[in-house]
Design a protein that fits this description.
The complex is a heterodimer of chains A (247) and B (273). Chain A has 247 residues and is of the alpha/beta class. In chain A, 37% of the residues lie in helices and 24% in strands. The radius of gyration of chain A is 19 Å and the shape is globular. The longest helix of chain B has 40 residues. Classes of the chains: A alpha/beta (247), B mainly alpha (273).
């Protein structure tokens, strides 16, 4: 379950959202930069606090201003993939993936097994001993994702996970992520400004503008011309092609 | 053809280049000649003989001991101050910043006098300590206090700049992965700021080792107790010039080592970034 109902006054506007996904799945927050999408991720992760409202993920209440509940960031069990991945530059790939497990005092053998189990399918074993800074964009994205998944999070938070990748890698990693999300079976919230990411991965897509949700629904509901200029702009190329074909 | 044009273009700058070269040579000679003169006066044999002199040995041992303790104290107290001032906004932050920076510009003699007025036998705090039978002035503790007072800004400023330069997203990542604020600080923040922390600590150690003014005012000049290397150089200058020169050369060597360490650390950081 994803249940987010929060208000927070930001510098340029007031963030005011109400999202309920009783069935869980992947929620995509879509919109231009500065719409307040990443703020929602930070509120869920516990890196920011709402002025009023509540956030419930699965059976856990992360924050509820009515009952003055606020679980600190380190106890929420979220897996956050940051926009620029935020891999610890002073650590190797292995240490990055193992970081959350070491914090939980898991035995060394179990950590080793878990890291290998995660890194193997994504071809990261050969670079395990390399420093995170020496990896390619696609590899860094995978390491960030594995670091977040290693701790078996209650909720996965993805902030523009494909924006730092070139177009070809984006297509590949999008497919990979789809498989990983399906296998992990955890609620996920993804922030993106790209409709293609939203359509490919979102069970529910919420279009945000100035801190408010202006359109919400599944891919079929969202993907209709004339509903919102943000969605329409993605049809421009298609319309031109149709015109060219008929002409 | 290209070479000729380059030469023509450079000709205009020639006089400026010569002027800059002369300025650089004068500046280098100004620092290099006195150091050279010092090193030339102390052949290795004399240095070895002087190292057996009890005055030299006592001063060397006391200096290394007190400077190490001072550096440890500065790191212990200075790291949280540097971090908080780099990361947090709180009322009175500018005042705290100014006070911690002040010893850099304060003449060491003034620092020594201020310490004496505070912790001397009749000082503001010292009079009460005296009642409890605690005497600080003119003891080894006074040497350490003088060094901490004078050298702490070198560490705090450097550490503060390093902490401020770390992208907070790394700390956020650690927190979401389950690390408490303290674990995050030691496992992510400190390692990322390590170059700055180390060069600040090395600078502090060097400044503490060279401390003279505040020490002589607050701790006096007692061999084996408060007579550090700079004080021994000054003391020996009245009589045994060789000891004075040997101590000076040791300090020059340490200073060179400090600069080299800092350069290596800085280059390493540049290479990483």
């Amino acid at each position: 379950m994803i249940d987010i109902a929060v208000k927070k006054v930001l510098r340029d506007f007031t963030l005011d959202v109400n999202i309920l996904m009783p069935e869980g799945g992947t929620l995509v927050l879509l919109g231009e930069n500065g719409a307040g999408k990443s703020t929602i991720l930070n509120l869920v992760a516990g890196l920011m606090a709402p002025d009023t409202g509540h956030i419930r993920i699965g059976g856990d209440t992360f924050v509820d201003t009515a009952t003055r509940t606020c679980i600190p960031a380190e106890s929420r069990g979220t897996g956050y993939v940051f926009q620029d991945y935020a891999l610890f530059p002073h650590m190797t790939v292995y240490d990055n993936i193992a970081y959350g497990l070491r914090i939980r005092h898991i035995p060394r053998d179990a950590i080793d097994a878990r890291v290998r189990e995660l890194a193997g399918p994504l071809d990261l074993l050969p670079v395990c001993e390399e420093k995170a800074g020496s990896l390619s964009g696609g590899q860094r994205q995978r390491v960030a994702l594995l670091r977040a998944l290693a701790v078996q999070p209650k909720c996965l938070l993805l902030d523009e996970p494909f924006s730092a990748l070139d177009v070809r890698t984006q297509v590949q990693v999008r497919q990979e992520l789809k498989g990983i999300l399906a296998a992990a079976k955890v609620p996920a919230i993804m922030v993106t400004h790209d409709l293609r990411d939203a359509i490919a991965l979102g069970d529910r897509i919420c279009l945000m503008e100035q801190g408010k949700i202006v359109l919400c629904g599944d891919a079929d509901t969202i993907l209709q011309k004339g509903k919102h200029p943000f969605i329409d702009q993605f049809f421009i190329g298609t319309c031109k092609k149709e015109k060219d074909n008929t002409g | 053809m290209t070479i000729t044009i380059e030469r023509i273009c450079m000709r205009g700058n020639l006089s400026l280049r010569i002027l800059v070269a002369i300025l650089v040579i004068i500046a280098v000679l100004f620092i290099g000649i006195p150091l050279g003169a010092l090193l030339l006066r102390v052949p290795p044999a004399l240095l070895l003989v002087s190292l057996q002199d009890p005055v030299v040995l006592d001063a060397l041992f006391l200096s290394l001991l007190t400077a190490s303790i001072s550096t440890g104290i500065v790191i212990g107290f200075g790291t949280p101050i540097a971090y908080i001032n780099a990361r947090c906004q709180y009322p009175g932050k500018k005042i705290i910043d100014t006070i911690t920076d002040l010893p850099v510009v304060l003449p060491p003699a003034v620092a020594g006098l201020a310490l004496l007025m505070a912790f001397g036998r009749r000082g503001l705090v010292g009079q009460y300590l005296n009642l409890m039978g605690i005497d600080i002035a003119f003891t080894t503790i006074a040497v350490i206090m003088a060094q901490v007072f004078v050298a702490s800004p070198f560490y705090i400023r450097q550490a503060r700049t390093s902490f401020a330069g770390i992208n907070r997203v790394y700390e956020h990542a650690a927190r979401t992965l389950g690390a408490s604020p303290l674990t995050t600080f030691f496992s992510v923040t400190v390692p990322l700021a390590m170059t700055g922390i180390l060069s600040g600590a090395v600078m502090t150690f060097a400044r503490a080792l060279g401390e003279f003014g505040a020490t002589i005012m607050f701790a006096g000049n007692l061999q084996g107790k408060t007579q550090t290397m700079p004080l021994a150089i000054y003391g020996a200058l009245q009589g045994d010039m060789d000891s004075s020169l040997a101590l000076a050369v040791i300090l020059v060597i340490i200073s060179f080592a400090v600069i080299i360490v800092i350069k290596i650390l800085t280059e390493k950081e540049e290479a990483v970034s």
